[in-house]
Amino acid sequence: MAGTALPGRLTWQLAELVEVVVETPRVKTIVFDVPGWPGHRAGQHVDIRLTAEDGYQAERSFSIASARDGSRVALTVQRLEDGEVSPYLTDELQPGDKIELRGPIGGYFVWEPSDGGPLMLVAGGSGIVPLAAMIRTRAAAADDTETRLLYSSRSQDDVIYRDELERLSGNGLTVVHALTDSQPPGWTGYARRVDAEMLAEVAPSPAEEPRFYACGPTPFVEAVAEALVRLGHDPLAIKTERFGPTGR
Amino acid sequence: MDELMLDGNAIAGLLQEVFAVEMTTAVGTCGGCGAPGPVGAVHVYRGAGSVLRCPHCGNALAKIVKRDSQVWIDLTGIRTLELTV
After folding, report:
1. Which single residue of A96, A161, A229, B54 has CA 20 to 30 Å from A150?
2. Please, are residues B24 and B45 in contact by the beta-carbon 8 Å criterion?
3. Mutation for A interface: B7, B27, B43, most A CBs within 10 A
4. Prediction pTM value
5. What's the pLDDT tens digit per position in A94-141?
6. Which residues of chain B make contact with A1, given a CB cutoff of 8 A?
């Protein structure tokens, strides 16, 4: 990257893995040190490129999970059984190993404290990752923008960043979980998929002009976006990031 | 609804590689229905290449195929593209 790179021009560079955090049985956070990293905005992503010995290359995009923090960039990766890239990142890569990465990328699905709110974040599974970057950025800036997170997971064990989200709650942040497949004993929260009724209960009203960021599998995001429009929210205030049928 | 559909965000890296500026905040106007909107919000279908479709009318805005260091781009479905340079 360095000072020689043209503004806007993306270049591949080597990033060193410095830390691995196990989030759930299928999800890990991998933290890289990226020399010369220019900083990023919450919601941006990086591309990762793996090259096999025979020259075959596989490229994938991963949302940045962390708030801006010098040359450190954290990605949270869900292991996909038939994935070309994610099993390598979650199972093979060891601290000290280097991979090719480029970024930060994207400017549309991005939020900064100066954008204001109220902010309504809707996550399905690992769709929480770019939204967590927004929540972390908000916390790091001691920003008190009214923020609500509606986060759908299969079970409590599948909730990524569970403790941290609880810790960051308050100061204008409300976290609401929906557990679709199984619920722990005594669960009083939502026990179904996100639907229009749930969004009407959790989201600010259309009159409050909330900014929406919805991220998750394509069918999840489609359902959320359609329900929000039906509830009377401005389609232009609904930003979406779909990551396909299974995640990425 | 197609489960394989993605957003313009998903090819932000490829677009930035081609245009050398951040493209998801650029506003494209559909050559089919005339609706303007940010590139990050278009629908993207990936196969041998990427097809960008208008989220309002489904018109194919652009097709991009990359092979090694060559990129082929068909922009016939986009009327205008407005971006910050």
Report:
1. B54
2. no
3. B7
4. 0.94
5. 999 999 999 999 999 999 999 998 999 999 999 999 999 999 999 999
6. none
